[in-house]
Amino acid sequence: MKRVAIVGYAQHKILSKAGALNEVELIMPVVHKVFNDLGISQNDIGFTCSGSCDYLQGAAFAFVEGLSAIQTNPPIKESHVEMDAAWALYESMLKIKMGDADTALIYGFGKSSPGNLDSIISLQMDPYYIAPLWPDRVSLAALQAQLLLQQNKITQDEMMGAVIQSRENAASNSNALLTDLLSEQIYNADSLVSSPLRSLDCPPISDGASAMVIASEEKAYEFTDNPIWIEGIDHSIESSNLGSRDLTTSPTIQNAIKNLKLENINFDVAELHTQFSHEVPFLREILNLKNVPTNLSGGPLVGNVMMCAGLDAIGKTFEALVKDQLSNGLAHATSGPCLQHNMVVHLERQK
Amino acid sequence: MIQAGVIGVGQTNYDSKRRDVSMAGLVREAIDQAMLAANIEWDAIDAVVLGKAPDMFEGVVMPELYLADAIGAVGKPVLRVHTAGSVGGSTAVIAASHVSSGQFKTVLTVTFEKQSESNATWALSPRYPYSPHINAGAGGYFAPFIREYIRRYSPPEHIGWKVAAKDRQNALKNPLAHLQIPGIDEKMVSETPMLWEPLRYLESCPSSDGACAMVITSEDMVGDRNVAWIRGMAVRSEGTLSAGRDEVNPQAGIDCAKDIYQQAGIQDPRTEIDCAEIYVPFSWYEPMWLENLGFCELGEGWKLTDEGVTTLDGSLPVNMSGGVLSSNPIGASGMIRFGEAALQVMGLAEDHQVEDAKMAMGHAYGGAAQFFAMWIVSSSKD
After folding, report:
1. Residue A326 lies in a domain
2. Fewer Cβ atoms within 10 Å of its own Cβ: the N or the C terminal residue of chain A?
């Protein structure tokens, strides 16, 4: 089967409130950046795919507006997923593997600041029985955190550690939204939003966009002598019924580890789509990352662009492999309440 | 590239309000039919691809999450596609790409809309910050393009009525179709109220609830099953407001059609394609798309319609199932075109079967006539 490599990635500086800067104005700079870095234009792209959520913009067909950010004359092969752009990457990879394209542009964008993210995410639940109760995203995450604490799968110290560490790591990420360092005192003085989650355990409301370019094996070498290969990529979803799931484990991530044969790989770096602090120790345990530097970018706790943060985890892993000439990176993207839908990506630098 | 084929198509019956089922029940109804037709068990399904138009049509955000159980996706990869009105078609193309890439053997794909849960014209009239609000709905948006078509080529007024009557006559032969209007004819259409000049009430698609599903598999998994081989598939998009864009005859549609003809080795679509399911939500789009798809020269499409070429017993039957004009669960409408094309070449279209159909086209478009998805299916592999 054809190999696929990531050859470029660009991220907009994450903003707390982009204001009148609209989605097109967030996307254009990152698409231009990734094209300029590679010395290419839209004419060199075989397939384009984006990820976004209409509800964030408060308008049906919001993704159509996003298309104004790129050149579409002459017409392009293009598609859109109403998912995190990590899944736009997945679709693009299929197009390259089937030979329909040899390069692809992926972009994701989201502005959470204008709306009420809690209400919007509530609408992901069963519309007849659960959504009318308006369960917000923090309360749903807190259910999982509470169970993990009760069963001693994680500790509150680990949650605090994840928050403090994310701010320290953010110092080296010029796109991070939150960079103020935190102490144990500040963390402990923070108020609970939904027990056991304090506001510092939750990601900041964020606006932004990112873009990535991937290429087939033959094409990748035109851009670089050391392509970063998508060595493995796997995703699957769990039940929508929270009551029927064991929230203290993740069968989908465990399946991915098995399918991608990750058990014996020594990862140099990992970026996880962990939006809440308890997810960091939880997933590091499942993914066997105890000794692996994780979320060196700070991760979603220092900037969490909806529909883009999963692609960013992959992009940040790519950047780390390139910058520090590392061999193996692991990235994770997620969707849905309590880590319902998970993607695991193994990136490998050309040896 | 690995060749893929459709081995099962499933559809719900279409209606303005399917109050007897939830959204989950609706999609499952189509899936069960498709699985039965494909004669396949759940453990053979490697991935699921879900498509639908905007989440605001039902008020469920990213519904693959809520529907994971109903669509049989638990423990499997699932992808949710949203490409406006073309989504049913592009979802089929993406599902087939799962197989053609070699990544998966057998994929289940399903699309739906339960328009009765919300108000489509409200959801189709987005209000963007810092932009003027166009409270148009789809008919109001497309009518100016149709008026421009009429200005260019001066077709007679009755062409639209003719398409509307023909598709509803076909619907009378399709028990799943939403609109069943006994005695429908041009005169009845022409006497309905004007909605958006030149479109009258019966020249518009209905709002429907419904779902359509397909099972797509790779050539080595087909066995002795009845199969519609996918001989060509493509998508194309162009920007809403690109300079020089021709909304009446969009370049993206022209390019997309050329792409699938080339893949399928078709030189002359007019004679080599036996029948076509084309996305015609408003009557005049039949002649407009016949031209855009290269079935005839520009300005000649209305003549094909007028001469009866596109009727069920014509030489190029179009929308044998009754088309979007008879059933329109928006997110599924494209896939119904793709699925009905497959049924024709599998010989399973029952009362609306075109005799000896071997090569058929499925077509969908969306947005401001800017997103296109198409495929060619055939009873023979090559």
Report:
1. no
2. C
CA distances for B253 relative to A42, A45, A73, B370, B375, angstroms: 19, 19, 13, 8, 12
Q: Is A237's CB within 8 Å of B56's CB?
A: no
Report if residue A132 sits inside a domain: no
What is the tens place of the pLDDT at every residue in A155-206? Answer: 999 999 999 999 999 999 999 999 999 999 999 999 999 999 999 999 999 9
Q: Which amino acid is at B381?
A: K
ipTM: 0.98
Rounded alpha-carbon distances, angstroms, from residue B116 to A7, B55, B262, B334, B345: 45, 13, 40, 19, 33
Residues of chain A in contact with residue B130, where contact means CB-CB under 8 angstroms, are 20, 22
Q: What is the number of domains present in chain A? A: 1
Q: Domain holding A60: CATH number?
A: 3.40.47.10
Q: Do A97 and B102 touch (CB under 8 A)?
A: yes
Window 230-289 of A: residues touching B by CB (8 A cutoff) are 234-241, 251-252, 255
Instruction: Report which of B202, B196, B227, B201 is spatially closest to residue B214, judged by C-alpha positions.
Output: B227
**Verdict on whether the full-model pTM lies above 0.90:** yes
DSSP 8-state class, residue B266: -
Tokens of A315: 């992009």
Q: How many CB pairs under 8 A join A and B?
A: 198
Domain that holds residue A26: 4-116+205-223
Which H/E stretch holds residue B29?
helix B23-38
Question: What does the DSSP 8-state code read for residue A213?
Answer: E
Question: What is the C-alpha R_g of chain A?
Answer: 19
The residue of chain B with its CA nearest to that of A338 is B65
**A342 lies in some domain:** no
Q: What are the structural domain ranges in chain B?
A: 4-120+205-378
Instruction: With beta carbons under 8 A apart, name residues in chain A contacting B78.
Output: 236-237, 341
Using CB atoms, which residue from A60, A73, A120 is nearest to B239? Answer: A73
Those residues whose C-beta lies under 8 Å from the C-beta of residue A269, and which sit 6 or more positions away, are A292, A293, A294, A296, A317, A320, A321, A324, A326, A329, A330
